[in-house]
Amino acid sequence: MRKMLAVFVTLALIAGVAVFAYRPAPAGAQGGGTIEAAVTYGGAPVVEKLKVNKDTKQCGTEAVLEKVVVGANKGLANAVVSVAGAKGPARAAKAEIDQQGCKFVPRVVAMMPGAIDIKNSDGILHNIHTYSTANASINKAQPKFKKVMTEKFDKPEFVKLTCDVHSWMLGWIAVMPNPFFGVTDAKGTTRIENVPPGKYTLEVWHETLGKQTKDVEVKAGQTARVAVEMKK
Amino acid sequence: MPARARSRVVRCVPAGGGGMPSSTTLASSLGGAAGARVSDYPDNTGLGGHHRPRRPARAASRAPVIAVIVAVSVVAAAGTAAAQGGDAGAGKAVYDLKCAGCHGEKGDGKGPAAELLEPRPRDFTTGVYKVRSTATKVPTDQDLFRVITEGMPGTSMPPWAVLPEKDRWNLVAYLKRFAPEKREEAPKRVELPREVASSAESIKRGREMYEAIECNKCHGDQGRADGPSRAELKDDWGHPIRPANLTKPWSFRGGASRTDIARRIAVGVLGTPMPSFIDSVEKPEDVWHLTNYILSLSPGAPRYATLVTVTSVAGAIPDDPDAALWKRIAPSHIPLMGQVIVDPRNFNPSIDLVAVRAVYNDREIAFHLTWDDPTESTGDGTRAFPDAISLQFPPRPSGGAERPYFLMGDASEGVYLLRWESGKGVGEATAHGPTKLAPLAGAEATGRAVFAAGQYRLVMKRPLASKDAARTEFRPGVFTPVAFQAWDGGAGEAGPKMSLTSWYYLRLEEPESSRRFVLPPVVAILTLAAMLLVVRVAQMRS
């Protein structure tokens, strides 16, 4: 009898753990598809250099202004790829951007409307100066002891982020209306997963090269590969 | 009844708080009864005027009288609304006449004069205003009214207190029309922490905070606007902008009172690189410690002078600008303007003030000059030039009102210059106009300059006597005309592009002489002797 009980308890525990461990895949995973976007640019990269006259310990002696970063096979980095019109739940993770080496890291961050943590890993004065139209623009000092400042951007738009202390610093916060977006990596690629099946317009935005669109059809469980070439 | 109404005017006007137009306008435009309603009118300035409860009617028999008062008051209240809120239509007429020249007919800051101004005139269509007392972007009506009334020190925006108060309120109403969508959110005043009075301790804490939050990045270590980020600063429109020189509070755009300064630190200056610090100091009251520190950097108010007194001293005059002698002498502050008479003109001069101390002994005259220059430069010959300063004198002061042309003389009459240039040092020159400068041979002038934390301190010395007709001779008791010119070479100033003054006067005070101890007793003795003589003669005759 006791043995039986022990077996039951064990089974029950296993079952419990199993139930706990089993999470239904997100709706998209069952019925959704994936978009793999490859963004290219045929032109020359635009990377400028500037002599630094202060905070050289943190900033280095030369600031690199990465206006257009082109990698292998013409892959264009820092482009925001988004699926216009798609609907989906909000992303759980809070967006964040860091100020490190007197640069915004990453240079381009995409998020859904809401809060973002702006970090100051440099431990020197930066000021968060944004340029935007839909959201109120802000200009707040972030001295060395302010490690994180949380700011809210509630309306979709591309927000320009600058620092007046280090005028070369430039970053972008892409506030997107739905969770289906990605920022291209050094190879110019990004993956957008769990997109509900359907026909959409894929939008690609780059800070200096502007916008391009391309039609895309997403099928359940499949990967749609889209190549977009940015033009000046 | 009028007396009753008037008594209310007196009682109610102070209750309106700072946001209300003063009783003069109300009284003149609306009559005494109108003023009675001021405190009842909702304060749309966001200042939250204190409302006093009205006295209940005391007697029923007075009811008709009160009814009339109320009726008049209601009508008047509507009128007050117009005065307080301003009439945008009437404001437009004033605007087109007085403001459009710089700010543009469309309010976009692109008037015909805009190109020449730095800082540029405000673009009202963005609804962004530099000086505000609010935590949000929208300024209160009172903020706008104040800038119109007091102007913006250190910019081309003059105070318009000369306009009737009603016109200024009408202007406020008209300005808001340029960006109506920006006014949807109601202005909300910033809550400053409790004021901390100035003390040595508070100033010390302020300095600590100044270093911790790195104000020096733009404003410089000693607040002289010479921080390393200075050259990079741009406003939201991409125009270059200079940080404030914190040692000159009289040039602060938004006023120099303690509250003004604390507010600027708390909410920043919108549309410029100056960020808001209220969430970025260690403790909120640090805003006040910073205010106290900033005010400790300035001499209070400049000691403007039209006559520079040259003090007589005994013994040698030190070359060192930091010598103790110079600290004992109170400076005369001389304001400088940009040279805008001949090309190239200097509409936005860098140097606007020189502090002058002057002494002489039996042999030499010496000038000690102190001026702020945010960009030390010996010149690279292309965009930067050597920093320089000169004292200008007529070679032969006439003693009358006739003097050479103040702009470095002209073809017919030259001037003598005692000047210093970085890299070259002190020298003498003759000029017949701003581009016709000839160094004098056999110069005997000497001196030394020190540059530190955005400030030059310079001593220039010369014999009192002149060697030739080209040089001015300095004699005690004579009013000698003097003018000043300065160049911030690091800001691209050279040749006619300079700051300058018109003629001022210099006077060498009479040396202290021992004659005052000798002459009076001699006179007294002689007088006594004469009296005795008279008495003696009279006695002998009788």
Describe the structure.
The complex is a heterodimer of chains A (232) and B (542). By secondary structure, chain A is mainly β. Chain A has one domain: Cupredoxins -  blue copper proteins (Immunoglobulin-like, Sandwich), CATH 2.60.40.420. Helix content of chain A is 12%, strand content 47%. Chain A has 3 helices and 18 strands. In chain A, the strands form 5 sheets. A 5-stranded mixed beta sheet of chain A has the order 7-13-12-9-10, with no helix packed on it. In chain A, strands 14-4-16-17 form a 4-stranded antiparallel beta sheet, with no helix packed on it. Chain A has a 4-stranded mixed beta sheet with strand order 6-5-8-11, with no helix packed on it. In chain A, a hairpin with a 7-residue loop joins strand 9 and strand 10. About 4% of the residues of chain A have low confidence. Chain B has 542 residues and is an alpha+beta fold. Chain B is built from 14 helices and 14 strands. In chain B, a hairpin with a 2-residue loop joins strand 10 and strand 11. In chain B, helix 9 packs across helix 12. The longest helix of chain B has 27 residues. Chain B is globular.
Strand content of chain A: over 45%
Largest interface: A-B, 23 and 24 residues
Helix proportion range of chain A: 10-25%
Question: What's the story with the biggest beta sheet of chain B?
Answer: 14 strands, mixed
CATH architecture of chain A: Sandwich
End-to-end Cα distance of chain A, whole Å, is: 79 Å
Regions of chain B with pLDDT < 50 over 5+ consecutive residues?
1-60, 74-83
Which descriptor suits the 3D outline of chain A? Answer: globular
Shape of chain B: globular
Please write the CATH class name of chain A: Mainly Beta
Tell me the series of helices and strands of chain A, N- to C-terminal.
Answer: HHEEHEEEEEEEEEEEEEEEE
Strand content of chain B: 15-25%
| Biggest sheet, spatial arrangement of strands of chain A | 7-13-12-9-10
Total helical segments of chain A: 3
Which structural class do the helices and strands of chain A define? mainly beta
Radius of gyration of chain A: 22 Å
Which structural category do the helix and sheet elements of chain B fall into? Answer: alpha+beta
Radius of gyration of chain B from CA coordinates: 31 Å
Give a quick account of the main beta sheet of chain A: strands, pairing sense, barrel closure.
Answer: 5 strands, mixed
